[in-house]
Amino acid sequence: MGFSSIKGSILNLDGIFDSKALTPLQRERAFDKVVSLAIDIGIGIIPPEIIDQINILQSTIQAMREALDSLIVKPEFVLIDALSIPDIGDIPQKAIIKGDQKCYSVAAASIVAKVVRDRLMSKFHLKYPAYNFARNKGYGTQEHLNALARVGPCPLHRRSFKRVKEFCITKDNS
Known about the structure:
The protein has 174 residues and is mainly α. It has 2 domains: 2-126, 2-Layer Sandwich (Nucleotidyltransferase, domain 5); 128-174. It contains 8 helices and 4 strands, in the order E-H-E-H-H-E-E-H-H-H-H-H. A two-stranded antiparallel ribbon has the order 1-2. Strands 3-4 form a two-stranded parallel ribbon. The protein is globular, with a radius of gyration of 18 Å. The protein has helices spanning 24-37, 48-54, 56-70, 99-102, 104-127, 133-136, 142-151, 162-172, and strands spanning 2-6, 38-42, 78-81, 93-96. The chain starts with a strand and ends with a helix.
């Protein structure tokens, strides 16, 4: 997710922290705060068939590029929650290990990414209710794995993901 800047210099940023450490309600509230404070927000979404073609790391980098390209207000500097700096363009950047725990803008981007993804998965639940995406959000919970075993993968599943690949092989050999 691209996140170019936050308005103002002294802000109340309570609740803006690593999205994984927040409850869904806290994330929604933090999302609203981020959206109200952000000068611009960019989103990059890579479909599963592309992830299968280029791998998850390259897809993540591509999503970063798309997020940056979608920004109207171009950032002067990009902070990335990463071990190393990916090639995402000519904007100066810095990788910060555990950046979503150390930096408000990285935490804000993680919140936006998680809430946008969760909302998408809730919409996909309406199209593919067998997987209960509204609750498990596509993560490999036991419920999700049981649905994969029962009905096989849907178009949202990455065929290159080990657990999905196992179910595809099993279904093909049946």
